[in-house]
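User: Thanks for the earlier help. One more: ABC transporter ATP-binding protein. Can you show the sequence and predicted structure together?

Assistant: Of course, both are below.
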Amino acid sequence: MTSRQILVRDLLLLLAFAGWALALPHYGSEFVVSMALTCLMYVALSSSWGLFCGTTRYLSLATSAFFGIGAYTSALVLEQVSWWQAVALGAGLATLVAVVMGAAVLHLRGTYFAVLTFGMTELIRHAVTYFEKTVTGTVGRVLMVVPERDTIYLTVLLLAVLAVLCSILLRRSRLGLALLGIGADEQRAQTLGVNTRLVKIAGFALTAAFAGAVGAAMSVRWTYIDPHTVFNPFIGFQTVLIALIGGAVTLWGPLIAAIAFSVLAETLRLQFPQIYMMSLGILLILSVLYLPGGLASLRGSTFTGWWQSSRQWVRDLGRKEDRRG
């Protein structure tokens, strides 16, 4: 397929996904719509995470920080401004924090970068908690203005579609090529004239903007938020797991994995939370060992290869037994 045909195919698939998700509230129950909202939230978070971390191979654990900043911004300003302005402010403040954070830590790679982003997330969470305890005298916010369910759903759907659309367009842009070049060989990209520091900060800020907007939109779902809820590291860890298991470098992997994990979470987490966490761990191990490209890299040839490998393993085992006999 040519590049243009692939672009048309991806846009048609995205249009079909958006149409299906748009029609869902009209025939789905409250439980199905709630599950779909969780799906869309993780589609937006994991797809936007893959924009930067999938291409550059920088493992960021700061998603929950940007999510929490967006959620708190929305909770603070929603009574004074409109819904869309609150979401935009959440995205803007998260972007601003990402630029400052990126300028401080994006010269590091690997474990050091991952640990520092997680450390800064915890720092922000404890700073918000300390501020509320000492200045406002209470921890947490009750959201008095809550939009209708369909408004929240459509907003998160729009953010999920925009995240995937941004990923489609970014892969065909100079910024996307620069991010891929950094992931392949950062020093070579720098030698070829790429301003790697600026490109990394731009990609990191783009990821944060989506996480902040999703946090601002999802905060009203809880009606009461506190730092422990919205800066919860589990939100960031699950985003990373979804992107890695689905295929962080691929376009559709995070979306496929987000739907699968959200369904798994809603059906298992409440009644069997241990089984849910074990499932996450087992899927991650299997993905790393047998499917490093993620669920999106599954093809017919993959199953054929697994079948041939298992047959060869059985034959080798039989030969060893014959020699012993």
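User: Great, one quick takeaway?

Assistant: The first strand starts at residue 141 and ends at 142.
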